[in-house]
Amino acid sequence: MQVLRSLPWTVNTVQKGRGVLHADASSADLYVLETGWAAHYSIRRDGTRRITGLLMPGDVCGERASSERRAGHGIVALTCCEIASVRSDRIEDASDYLRGFRHLLWQLKLVEEATLRVWMSVSRDAFEALAHLICELHARADAVGDVRDGRLRLPITQEQIGDALGITSVHTSRMVGKLRACGLADVFEGYVRIPNIAALHAACAFTPAYLGL
Amino acid sequence: MQVLRSLPWTVNTVQKGRGVLHADASSADLYVLETGWAAHYSIRRDGTRRITGLLMPGDVCGERASSERRAGHGIVALTCCEIASVRSDRIEDASDYLRGFRHLLWQLKLVEEATLRVWMSVSRDAFEALAHLICELHARADAVGDVRDGRLRLPITQEQIGDALGITSVHTSRMVGKLRACGLADVFEGYVRIPNIAALHAACAFTPAYLGL
DNA sequence: CGCCCTTTTGAAGAAAATCAAGGGCAGTGG
DNA sequence: CCACTGCCCTTGATTTTCTTCAAAAGGGCG
Lengths: 213, 213
Prior knowledge:
The structure is a homodimer. By secondary structure, chain A is of the alpha+beta class. Chain A is built from seven helices and ten strands.
């Protein structure tokens, strides 16, 4: 991570609902989410949105295929965000670190791929899928010390959670209620409390290995 | 691609249903599917399988995160396959080509990622999803000259197609029948015939940009 | 206060799973 | 040659899951 610190970052604030990437972004530009939450998404023909990845503070994005900058795909701020970024030409300057830097990006890309495959293969039962998503967010937050007393920030709406699961906000609400009724997780006021993380893991067969933490 | 040709390949035959990767595979080993079809998959807790990627002749795989070699995830031969592979230590030998080689692998990884996001965001309507899959396979086959008279090989069962779409084989059969009834595509005897590819594209809003062809 | 956003709940309908059965076809072996 | 078996595809009937439509309640904020 020292590799990254040496780069000439510039920080931008992005309002909720706005795109995160520069309009004239190069496919090699690098972004790090400092505060707030963001998401990879695609817009379907019928106007609905599918979230294909969630970004929490500290997460890296960028380095997309240029083909992804087609209409309908991008990265959006789910809350107000602060984004640090480096233009690709400035990255080349840090050639001393280039080897470690590329290795780091490669590892991150492999974790991203593994996560995408896990998201695709999560049970199509919405209850288990929601439990699995909460397990993942818990594991990621825990890895950076953001879980206290089984409680972590979840500053996104149920509609956005539904977009990440591929279900409607109505059904998301029902599954959140069921999770609460089962005593597995309580989603409220921008937080989620998990009384017994082992029980939640068991409910959806969650194993965190794919996150590479 | 000349970069790849210079590597010391060894070719193995893998029987249908067997795993493609070496048992003692390193995460940096490289594989190329010479003949036959294979698939990335995950096994769910309930025993069902989700195919997260289809591999056709000429496709590259390998370079997975080590975390992906957990139970339940892998690459399986859907038909009898011939797989060419290079051990990672032999790749290092070809250091003359290392720069171009790494760049090529990076590009392939970006296409893989884009494809995963598209698969995730495809309409959850099974009819459109099936049409979209056939469009993708057509585009990939066409790019290497494997489409003749709107006809291309599809040597996999409807159950396997269903696993790739996340639906049952029964429902797959119904959607294949509907596609046939609509005159959009005819799946038969290991082939699929597409009378009017533009019409099929229109039926599922397919755009091939993400494939990076 | 009034408005917007979010969550919740109910009722009805659509999509897909499940359960079940039958048919075609290739390979196998009597 | 033909019965037998296994695999794949198809079709029907029923059930489950999720969507859609609708309404209402709560909270934050101008």
